[in-house]
Amino acid sequence: MWSWLKEFLGLREDSAFLKKVSVSLPFGIGSAEWETDPAERKAAWSLYVELVTRIAVQPLEVDTGLVREALNSLYSLFGITRQVLKEAGPNVGASRESVGGIAIAVLNNGLRPFLAKWHPLLQTWEAQRPPHLSPKEHERNWSEESKLRAELESLRRDLEKYANALAIIVGVNK
C-alpha cells in the first residue's frame, strides 16, 4: 500500500513498533528474547495497563490501605490475565518466550505462591475480628501484618520488573 494512502487512512507503519525484544523477568523466570507480533503487543499493553493502575506495582506505605484490598487486587490479576490471553488467542503464544508464556509464569511462579501463603492466613485472622474493631484496626493488630507488608513490597518490586518488561514489549518509553 502506498505511504500516502496509509497516512490518509490513519494507518501506522508496524515498523514503528519494536519487533525483536529482549526482557529480563522476575520470579526466577530469567530473560527472554523474541520477535513480537501485533497480537502480543496488544495483549502486553492490556496486561501493562492492569498492572500499573493497581496496587500491584504501587507501594503500600505503612499505615495506609488495607492488606486485604491489596491481596484482592493481586488475586484479580488471575482473572484479568486469563481474559486477556483468551481474547488474544493462540497468537500470543504459550511458549516461554512469548507474552502468554511470560504472563502464565508470572501467575504461577510469583502471584500463586504469595497468595497461597497469605490469603488463608489473613482470612483466618479476619474471621477473629471483634465487632467493635474496624477492619483496619484489626489488621493493624495482627502480628503478621508487618511481615505480609514486607513480602508484599518484595512482590511489588518483582511485579514492577514484569511491568517494565511489558513496557519494553509494547514500546512504552519510561
Cα(first) to Cα(last) distance is 33 Å
Structural shape: elongated
**Could you estimate the helical fraction of the residues in percent?**
55-70%
- Report mean pLDDT, rounded to a whole number: 84
Indicate the radius of gyration in whole angstroms.
Answer: 19 Å
Number of helices: 6
Uncertain runs are 1-18
Number of DSSP strand runs: 2
Strand order of the largest sheet: 1-2
Strand content: 5-15%
| Secondary-structure element pattern, one letter each | HEEHHHHH
Secondary-structure-derived class: mainly alpha
Give a quick account of the main beta sheet: strands, pairing sense, barrel closure. Answer: 2 strands, antiparallel
Q: Could you explain the architecture of this structure?
A:
The chain has 174 residues and is mainly alpha-helical. Helix content is 60%, strand content 7%. It has 6 helices and 2 strands. The chain has helices spanning 3-9, 38-52, 67-88, 99-126, 135-140, 145-170; strands spanning 20-25, 30-35. Strands 1-2 form a two-stranded antiparallel ribbon. Helix 2 (38-52) packs antiparallel against helix 6. It is elongated. The protein starts with a helix and ends with a helix.
